[in-house]
Design goal:
The chain is an all-alpha fold and about 300 residues long. The chain has helices spanning about 1-25, 30-55, 65-85, 90-105, 105-120, 125-150, 160-170, 170-185, 190-220, 225-250, 255-265, 270-280, 285-305. It has one domain: Na+/H+ antiporter like fold (Up-down Bundle). Helix 3 (about 65-85) runs antiparallel to helix 10, helix 10 (about 225-250) runs parallel beside helix 13 and helix 12 packs antiparallel against helix 13. The radius of gyration is 19 Å and the shape is globular. The mean pLDDT is about 85.
């Protein structure tokens, strides 16, 4: 329990700085918008580019690992999407953004350090296999669903082109694609360029967390608490439950089982808000789900750790 607090508490402190800065009017709403534009348009793509360009893509890519995790992610997405639409009466665009909260686990900021603290650095191979395709998979699902929602009544023949166009207008996907290109081709990167990209990447997470804190002040959970708690439950309980159950069917080994279930049990990452902000849909729900689920994951992660072998 102490290890979980050590990992999660610093995240809350940085979020709190952003929240207090906007509350005390040291930082304006326009300033937060510009900061989020910087993080999602520049700093986070640099972080994703550098991480993926250096990953060992052939390491532990096992269907018995990836199928339970991503089947659970899709289950969380459709539960969020359909529940938001038919239980809570949200628009289809809002429903897609809420579904994305059940799809996108915080695999890096929480998943890696919690797994390492619980089982040691040698237990992270399966985590990296999941992370290598996590953002591309989730954004492909989210962008496709959002373009379908926005294209209601339009021609389906034009949909693939719209999805590709929307994807490559997204700086995050561009960063991921360039990272894969460098990784696969082995193109040598000049040190002066990698050093510059690394400087940008180091700003990504703290700036995004600070900005999210300011966003949380603007989108406090007023009037949306039922749908927020629904999204939190999907993220922290349904996704890992599906992953755990399917892992028993695929006879997943102990080490990858731990990585898959713990990663699936993490709260939605900052990307859940970034996706909602990109489309201007359910931003209050997404921001509050990230905050509340991260706090609640102190208890739920401890519960999953006690269940895992």
């Amino acid at each position: 329990m102490a290890a979980l607090i050590d990992v999660i508490l610093p995240v809350f402190i940085v979020l709190g700085f952003g929240y207090v800065a906007v509350w005390a009017k040291y930082f304006s709403d326009d300033g937060i918008d510009l900061l989020m534009k910087f993080t999602q348009g520049f700093a986070i793509p640099c972080l994703l580019f550098r991480a993926i360009s250096e990953l060992d893509l052939g390491q532990n890519f096992d269907l018995a690992l990836l199928f339970p995790f991503y089947a659970g992610a899709l289950g969380g997405f459709f539960a969020g999407l359909l529940g938001a639409r038919f239980i809570f009466g949200r628009t289809w665009e809002d429903a897609v953004a809420i579904g994305f909260c059940g799809l996108f686990s915080n695999s890096v900021l929480l998943g890696l350090p919690i797994t390492e603290r619980a089982y040691g650095p040698d237990a992270l191979d399966a985590n990296y296999a999941i992370i290598a395709v996590h953002a591309p998979f989730c954004y492909l699902v989210g962008i496709t669903a959002m373009e379908i929602a926005r294209n209601r009544g339009g021609s389906l023949a034009a949909l693939p082109g719209k999805v590709v166009k929307a994807a490559f207008r997204n700086a995050l996907i561009v960063g991921i694609a360039l990272g894969f290109a460098v990784n696969i081709t082995g193109i040598p990167m000049p040190h002066v360029l990698t050093d510059a990209v690394d400087l940008m990447a180091r700003a990504a997470l703290p700036a995004a967390l600070f900005g999210l804190g300011g966003v949380l002040y603007r989108y406090r959970p007023e009037g949306d608490m039922r749908v927020i708690l629904y999204a939190v439950s999907i993220s922290l309980l349904l996704h890992p439950a599906i992953t755990w159950s399917l892992s028993q069917l695929t006879h997943l080994g102990t080490a990858p089982l731990r990585s898959a279930v713990l990663t699936s049990a993490m709260a939605p990452g900052v990307n859940a808000y970034i996706f909602a902000n990109m489309y201007g849909a359910a931003r209050r729900v997404a921001a509050s789900t990230v905050l509340i689920a991260t706090a609640a994951s102190i208890l739920t992660a401890w519960g999953w750790l006690s269940i895992l072998p």
